[in-house]
Amino acid sequence: MEVLYAKCNKSCGYKFYVQYFKKERLNHTIEKNYFSCPNCGREYVCYYTDDNIRKLQGELRKLYLEMKNVNSFQFDKLKKIESTLKQSICNSMAEIKNMVESS
Questions:
Q1: How far apart, in whole angstroms, are the C-alpha atoms of residue 15 and residue 48?
Q2: Backbone φ/ψ region at 63: left (φ over 0), alpha (ψ -120 to 50), beta
Q3: Could you give the count of Cα atoms lying within 13 Å of 14 in the half-sphere of its Cβ?
Q4: What b-and-e string marks burial along 24-52, b requiring 16 or more CB atoms within 10 Å of the CB?
Q5: Which one, out of 16, 49, 65, 67, has a CA that is 20 to 30 A from the CA of 7?
């Protein structure tokens, strides 16, 4: 993961770098990925995943490897698959977020 620069904009205003996300399993399938302010401890949720989303993310990683060694026609075809996968992941993450945060 690339290092991110963050500011605790909901609590203390502390500026810091995020080197990795923490993971917390909420139930047998859903994981919360987040980081915390090192000064005040405020949590910032980045995203939620379940088994299906993690599977789709794995497919996306394989697709990126495949895209490195193809011609332009195949690349265009793979870009369409990439777009579909990303949209599925985004929609699934939004559903899980709504479910988790509404309960």
A1: 24
A2: alpha
A3: 13
A4: eeeeeebbbebbebeeeeeeeeebbbbee
A5: 49
Q: For residues 60 and 66, what is the distance between their CA atoms, to the nearest angstrom? A: 10
Q: The whole model's pTM is what?
A: 0.83
- Measured N-to-C along each axis, helices 51-67 and 72-102 cross at an angle, to the nearest 10 degrees, of 160
The span from the CA of 103 to the CA of 99, in Å, is 7
pLDDT per residue rounded down to tens, the chain (103 residues): 688 999 999 889 999 999 999 999 998 899 999 999 999 999 999 999 999 999 999 999 999 999 998 888 899 999 999 999 999 999 999 999 999 988 7
In the block, which residue shows the tokens 């991110």? Answer: 4
- Are 82 and 56 in contact, with CB atoms under 8 Å apart? no
Structural domain boundaries in the chain = 1-49, 50-103
